[in-house]
Design goal:
With 258 residues, this protein is mainly α. The protein contains twelve helices and no strands.
Length: 258
């Protein structure tokens, strides 16, 4: 009984403070001090609402801070002239701030807001239908409950996978292998694959002697002097023929990849 009486007294005092602040003009010198007292008096409400969202992967202290931010917004925006009591205005403001925190801050991978909101709706439907049906609801059950298509439900469930992610530093074996170690790296050969495919037709477009010189230089690994001795011309002539052949190849390959 004593606890209940103390709680009632605290609530009465908090209501008196918010009423006193509402009666003061915005530029009244004592208003900031009264505002601070109002926020302090209503802190238990913010803490109580934040506790409802505990055990969802977010630290309790962080949730409490978000709730207090919502409380401060409610205090600053409260208008007694609208005929709504402060609690009726503060609760949805604080809860809205908490939901916004989960929607905007806790997703590991950014997804459209529509999918974030759809995930929350599906989560709520799962809980409600689980109680009423006495079993895990199917996609069709959720779709019927929310009034959306089954494809939308599946899309929401797929999008929900972005809510949590696994660190690449997560160990996956006793030997110390981490998840990131299993990811493949870039293979430089892929960048050259298309070029190699195009090289054959480009070589076929060269004169027969040019083809032979290119083949001996790059496939036979012969020096220009060795090539000159083999085909019976000077090394300088081989150099000019090779330079001309390579220029033709570059032009042809550039044309093929435009």
């Amino acid at each position: 009984m004593t606890v209940i009486a103390n709680a009632a007294t605290s609530t009465d005092r908090a209501n008196e403070l918010i009423a006193a602040m509402a009666a003061l003009p915005a530029d009244h010198p004592s208003r900031p001090g009264v505002r601070d007292q109002v926020v302090k008096a209503w802190l238990p409400l913010a803490r109580r609402l934040s506790s409802r969202y505990a055990n969802r992967g977010e630290p309790r202290d962080d949730l409490c801070q978000v709730a207090v931010l919502g409380l401060i917004q409610a205090v600053d925006r409260f208008d007694a002239a609208r005929g709504v009591d402060f609690v009726g205005f503060a609760i949805p403001t604080i809860v809205g701030e908490l939901k916004r925190h989960f929607r905007d801050k806790t997703w590991s991978v950014r997804v459209p807001r529509r999918l974030q909101e759809l995930r929350l709706a599906i989560t709520g439907a799962n809980s409600t239908l689980g109680h009423t049906l006495g079993r895990s609801p199917t996609v069709a059950d959720i779709a019927g409950h929310l009034g959306i298509s089954q494809d939308d439900v599946i899309e929401g469930l797929e999008g929900a996978r972005a809510y949590n992610s696994t660190s690449l530093s997560t160990p996956i074996t006793e030997g110390g292998t981490e998840l990131g170690d299993t990811l493949g790296g870039e293979d430089a050969g892929y960048d050259l694959a298309e070029l190699r495919i195009a090289l054959g037709p480009a070589l076929a477009g060269l004169a027969e002697r040019e083809q032979k010189i290119v083949s001996l230089r790059f496939y036979g690994n012969l020096t220009q002097q060795q090539i000159a001795e083999q085909i019976g011309v000077s090394q300088m002539h081989v150099s000019r023929l090779l330079a001309g052949a390579l220029t033709k190849l570059r032009q042809q390959l550039d044309t093929d990849h435009v």
